[in-house]
Amino acid sequence: MPAFPRTRMRRTRQMPWLRSLVAEHRLTTDDLVWPIFVHEGTEPEVPVASMPGVVRYSVDRVAEAVKEARDLGIRAVALFPATDPAKKTPDGEEALNPENLVNRTLRLLARECAGVGLIADVALDPYTTHGQDGLLREGRVVNDETLEMLRKQAVVQAQSGSTMVAPSDMMDGRIGAVREALDEAKLQDVGILAYSAKYASAYYGPFRDAVGSKGNLGKGDKRTYQMDPANTEEALREVALDIEEGADAVMVKPGQPYLDIVRRVKDAFHVPTFVYQVSGEYAMIQAAAERGWIDGDAILLESLLSFKRAGADAILTYGAVRAAKMLGR
Ligand code: PBG
User: Fold this and answer.
1) Is the CA virtual torsion 196, 201, 207, 209 positive or negative?
2) pTM, full prediction
3) pLDDT tens digits, 217-264
4) Is 279 in the pocket of ligand 1 (CB under 6 A)?
5) Is 222 a catalytic residue?
6) In the chain, what are the domain boundaries?
């Protein structure tokens, strides 16, 4: 007996109610983390040219934006500073300043925006004149000396109100080093979201515009620490190490070009798995939508749902507010 016509796959697609009942995955605001940029100036919102719809907020304006996001159901924000170029140094000491832009913003948001997760980025690139995530010695990004900086940076961020720190620098041993430093500072309840499988990607271009590190990095690249896009097994080793070192959640980044990695990580480790829809992914959707070539809203939601389907538990996206508004309808 042939399957057709007894079996008709289209039957469960006929009615909206049935499509809803058989849907395997659902995107909700509970899945969303909103990455935001802050700047030192007084201008409340400065548009980021390569990311239409994204702005850098002043410290005075940022709480209002975060409250709006919270009220739309967004669960957490990830903060990124556009540091005043005058404060950048070869060793990025500004990263450790309790009064730096990120730490001031963390204190403000912790006070004014109760209930929202505050995720701080642990890495030196917003603060170094060369734009690398670590310390540069004779043209090389040095690992172990950088760890000493990252430990201190994470502790000061946690003391300023970050409830989860997110090392994005890809130095070896950073998760263990940061965990130890937090524990020693009696910050044992502060979590670590590890950018475990972070690839050396061209998709980060607009982000480097937004935080003003593109000019600093110049012709440099991050291939001696971020992962080679050719590799998969290596991502699993990175994740395994980060879990062993104390990561509470792991991340794959970028997102859409690396859905295979999201799925493999989720299947192999069964730990909270985040994915970052990075600046270049966002810019591509926006650019095509602006030209009228695609339906930007629909593609945003479809791209986010694809992360859920691949096994992601949470998604960092610059489209979080827009998505939340659509999901709330
Ligand atoms: C750097 C950092 C980067 C992003 C987040 N943290 C860029 C980089 O590694 O150069 C990229 C995010 C994005 O492109 O949206 N520590």
Assistant:
1) positive
2) 0.97
3) 998 999 999 999 999 999 999 999 999 999 999 999 999 999 999 999
4) yes
5) no
6) 26-327
